[in-house]
Protein 1
Amino acid sequence: MKILPLSVSPLAISTSMILNPASPSSHLAIASQKTATASSQKAKAPAAKALAAKAPATKQVTIDNFSFTPATLIVAVGTQVTWINHDDVPHTVKTTNHVFMSQALDTDQQYSYRFTKSGTYQYFCSLHPMMQAKVIVK
Ligand SMILES: [Cu+2]
């Protein structure tokens, strides 16, 4: 799984600045130190979990053989979803309710959208409207 840098997420930046005006990295360092002083051997596991929770959530949908996989993707609010076209023909990602639409994606090109509101987002390929899938944001 690709973890995108914090800088791509306005949400992550603003949250970090509220929590710690200095910098996100020094905040993470402080969190790690606190965990490290805990006596148990389990110290590393909670630290890793804390770091993962601060990373922006990302999910991927692959486009291959004229279909979106997974056809139904369930994500949390704030998740950035990236579609990657592995077909050798162009495809698009267009929501039925006009929330967003990608440009035509050539082979190996990708499109990302961050879901900031809960709901069900039906989408399709405007070039091949039989290609349909959805993202459910909770
Ligand atoms: Cu298509």
Note: The chain has two domains: 6-54, 58-137.
Protein 2
Amino acid sequence: MQRLLTLGVLLTVLLAGCRGHQSERPPIHPHLGMDFQEKFQAQSYNPLFEDKATMRKPVTGTVARGQLRGNSELHAGRTEEGEYVESVPIDVTRKVLERGKDRYEIYCTPCHGQTGAGNGIIMRGDYGYTPASSYHVDRLRQVSDGYLYDVIANGVRNMPAYGQQIPVRDRWAIVTYIRALQRSQNARPEELPEDLASRLERKVGTDGDAPSDTVRVAGRQPDASSSE
Ligand code: HEC
């Protein structure tokens, strides 16, 4: 009972503080912390400059360190004349390929699938997306590396651009990996290294409609998604 009484008295005292009218005085701010600082806010007025704007534009004709995009082949995938470069302008090493695989699997597989056949996971449900292209068609085997780079950087028709997420060198790394995927699905027997070639079982057109140079490396099944 006594507790209840104390609570009641406390509440009355507290509520007595709120008299319900506006005050012109600033609210009490017992702990200042760093709440009030001498500084200019973004978009605020600034008498220091002629245009009285706090936010400054970069000086015309200057480029921030590391932001120069002056190498047209590397950054745009085009020659100075504006043509797509034929082949990747970076050294293609195993490390680059592996980086490309890694990035490809993050950014491209959801739509294009692991082998690039256009059967990524979101293409398999009935979600109504525009089908992603398969890379295993002659046209895309023949396009230049610069074109593939451009597709990644700027998108194409219904495919969104990935330039914002994927930095320049990673885009090229992905291009090298697309080339590797294309070869993996469209290799001719004579392109195989010796040790693999010797393990080839040649399936000579027995069942009529199989292409005459269909081959199988002993012990492996052909990938079902390799068809066009
Ligand atoms: C959100 C799904 C999606 C993702 C993710 C995606 N693509 Fe695509 N891609 C598409 C679609 C859809 C098309 C076909 C566009 C069209 O024809 O309108 C396409 C087409 C392409 C083409 C063929 C262009 C042509 O000339 O026909 C290439 C090459 C390609 N994508 C590469 C990539 C690469 C590389 C990545 C990863 C960096 C990627 N795509 C990520 C959906 C996607």
Note: The radius of gyration is 32 Å.
